[in-house]
Amino acid sequence: MATDVQVPALGESITEGTLAQWLKKPGEAVAADEPIASLETDKVSVEVPSPIAGVLSEQLVKEGDNVAVGAVIARIDEKPTAAAPAPASATNPAGAGETPALRGDEHAPVAEPEVTEREDQVTTLSPAVRRAVLEYHVDPTRIKGSGKDGRLTKDDVIAAAEAQKQPSIPAQAEAQAPQAKAPSPEAKAPPPGPRPSPGSTGERKEERVKMSRLRQTIAKRLKDAQNTAAMLTTFNDVDMSAVIAARARYKDLFEKKHGIRLGFMAFFVKACALAAKDVPSVNASLEGDEIVYHDYFDVSVAVSAPKGLVVPVVRNAQAMSFAEIEKTIADFGKRAKDGTLTVDEMQGGTFTISNGGVFGSLLSTPIINPPQSAVLGMHRIEERPVVEKGQIVARPMMYLALSYDHRLVDGREAVTFLVRVKEAIEDPTRLLIDL
Predict the structure, then answer these.
(1) Domains of the chain (ranges, CATH numbers)
(2) Is 77 a catalytic residue?
(3) What is the pLDDT of residues 196-229, one digit of tens each?
(4) Which end of the chain has the least Cβ crowding within 10 Å, N or C?
């Protein structure tokens, strides 16, 4: 009997997704709740589990097809049950040929089914590792795992795939010592025909790749934001000396106590939460002809994922400690790379912080994330000459950019917000005394 596999609920307001990849092929055995396909939605990738143990008998859609929530995408045939034993006869008396265990001897040893190393390893792969194995076409049984209890990690798979691309040592030696071979007669003279001109680049190739659903959604939302909001950007710079000194002084104690490194993001999240108290419109949103003010500060933190930028939300950041903020952001970054963030974790932010400095950006004009009214752009830290008390000195400086929706945030409010952030970063004591 076949069981239908349906597209599960994908989150609030999401009605369809794109079948990004089949993780199982027809005829392959699947366990109950084992992922058989990966769906890509507007925000995250979602795995579709098998409802029962059995064999994948049909794939009803192709990779790249759009599928609605509740649609049937595959069928699973239940595993056939073992045949019932034949009834006992006079020529085959009861108990003949049975092992002690089958006769009910509880102390008799029971033979366990043999599990090969390959089967055992494959069944313990995490969804992220399984996807990587399929993507890079590597044999997981030939890879030594670096994870807990020797389990494979995604990095192990990628490293193995890179190793496969490297030429063997004999081949390298042969390539490095071509003079060891006697040249063939054919090699002495160039083949007839036109010769390539100097500077010729040879064959030129192009590759066309369909935009992922996530990339399409990012493009649409960013363009909608430009078309809808009255966006403007204001800039300032901040001296990072005090924050750098605080990190250097307390980083070891902080990591020892909390198990996480003290980064810059916690300082900026706390500084923005403090500034939003003085300028609440920056933490507001526009719904129709109404401005919605929030007494909480839910920060969307832009993090890089393999298929594009995602913005999980640190909720109630105004009430969180530095350690809680750092742990939450670190967890988001790890799960963004693994593709395990949920839709709910990326909805409902009231303000966004984007750190382009980690990629080396000096200055940018970030685009707001509707219906939010503002986004703070952080950039790289570099020593620049500044004037202090009539003297030119070198200081670690960072440019800050605040893009905001001018429909509900005035220029004075935007500048005031950015100055409050600058003051808190240059004097972190303000974060402790709520000043």
Answers:
(1) 230-433 (3.30.559.10)
(2) no
(3) 555 556 789 888 887 777 778 778 888 888 888 8
(4) N
